[in-house]
Amino acid sequence: MLYTSEALEAVIEHLSRLPTIGRKTAQRIALWLLKQPREDAVALAGALVDMKDKISYCSVCQNITESDPCAICSSTRRDQSIVCVVEEPGDVLAIEKTNDFSGLYHVLGGVINPLEGIGPEELKVKELLARTGAGTLKEVILALNPSVEGEMTTLYLAKMLRPLGISVTRIASGVPIGSALEFVDEATIARALEGRIVV
Amino acid sequence: MLYTSEALEAVIEHLSRLPTIGRKTAQRIALWLLKQPREDAVALAGALVDMKDKISYCSVCQNITESDPCAICSSTRRDQSIVCVVEEPGDVLAIEKTNDFSGLYHVLGGVINPLEGIGPEELKVKELLARTGAGTLKEVILALNPSVEGEMTTLYLAKMLRPLGISVTRIASGVPIGSALEFVDEATIARALEGRIVV
User: Which residue from B minimizes the CA distance to A56?
Assistant: First the structure.
């Protein structure tokens, strides 16, 4: 046995399964935790279980939430006529950070990916279409990642939503703020040219 | 509130306190854990608390252990006459991985660092000197990191151990295997020259 303790080995094993954490980092974190007060490890452990127990999915927007419907869906200060469609809960956080969007969200749970066997049925597409029934929805903003699968899903959703008389838009792709043209790939520049706007 | 869940926020907060994990990585890990089965989070949480409960310090070598004395100190197949002095438990793991050392260890718990108020009393120096009393100890290998503080501690320990009639050695500093001279700093090359050996 490499480690002098099975309990330590177990923590390293579990930590190294987490995304972005390799075995060396897992060992470093485990040894660091050993030096901290017991309460710190207990608090982290408690928070993990607590999170799994308290968080479920909003029945309206499919985002993670502690109450159903979620705080955003049940807010009276948000514009009920606009829904922004994203892939994952992390994307909602990213858009909320801008403080620039006051509508509602819809979390698809991924994108269409035929190679991995993910079609519209595996995503929350049915739930999105159901939200158009109430008649309050005027615009759907598609904010999927600009990957091949994201593009495919954007086109698919646009095709499904347009016949329902809803305005369908997508977020702009182009040169990121703070970047320089010479460092941006051709596909992005081509898209930025295509999406040029009058100033 | 930025996050739609306080339980999620709590996990991100706890994770981002761990070494090498920033807030973005913490968020990514937390959202990933949300997608995993509940058992996985419970198992990680359990392993953390278990580790804190089971692991203590070996009364002989001061390394982390589940039993006292530790597996290395109580092994009959290890050479009791050589002790390798290291800074932290992680260093024991690093040396054990080489399968090249069959002696015992002594974990100092750090190095002398006057700027941070760490003197010999804050380290396990007294415990190291006590181990020389039994008369079985013939050689002490100092394997501290080649930092300014590590050098200072090496010199200090050598000064304390030499009068006790024990052979005191230190691990070699030099060009790392696989590296190239042109990429190695001057201090390392100077040390490699100084420590040259007959071939």
Answer: B34
Q: What is the DSSP string of A95-143?
A: HHHHT---EEEEE-SS--BGGGTB-GGGTTHHHHHHHTTTS---EEEE-
Residue A28 structure tokens: 């470093």
Structure tokens at A26: 């897992």
Predicted pLDDT of residue A180:
86
Alpha-carbon distance A173 to A195, whole Å? 8
Predicted local distance difference test score (pLDDT) of residue B195:
86
Q: In 10 A of CB A88, how many CB atoms?
A: 18
**How far is A42 from chain B, CA to nearest CA, in Å?**
6
Q: Do A29 and B8 touch (CB under 8 A)?
A: no
**3-state SS, residue B199:** coil
Which residue is closest to B7 within chain A, CA to CA? A51
Chain A residues with CB under 8 Å of B48 CB are: 11, 33, 41-42, 44-45
Q: How confident is the model at residue B2 (pLDDT cuts 50, 70, 90)?
A: low
Residue A133 confidence (pLDDT): 85
Give B84's DSSP letter: E
What kind and span of H or E run contains A160?
helix A148-161
Q: Which residue of A28, A71, A93 is in closest CB contact with B20?
A: A28
When CB atoms are compared, the residue of B41, B53, B66 closest to A48 is B41
Q: What is the pLDDT of residue A196?
A: 87
Residue B108 reports pLDDT greater than 70? yes
Shortest alpha-carbon distance between residue B80 and chain A (Å): 18
Amino acid at B149: E
Which residues 78-117 on chain B approach chain A with CB closer than 8 angstroms?
A: 88-90, 92-93, 96-97
**Tokens in use for A45?**
């452990």
The 10s digit of each residue's pLDDT in A132-163 is 888 889 999 999 999 999 999 999 999 999 99
* The pLDDT of residue A1: 45
Distance CA(A142)–CA(A172), nearest Å, equals 10
Per DSSP, A4 falls in state S
Name the least confident of A115-129, A169-183, B32-46, B105-119: A169-183
- CA B109 to chain A, closest CA, distance in angstroms equals 10
CB contact A24 to B (< 8 Å): no
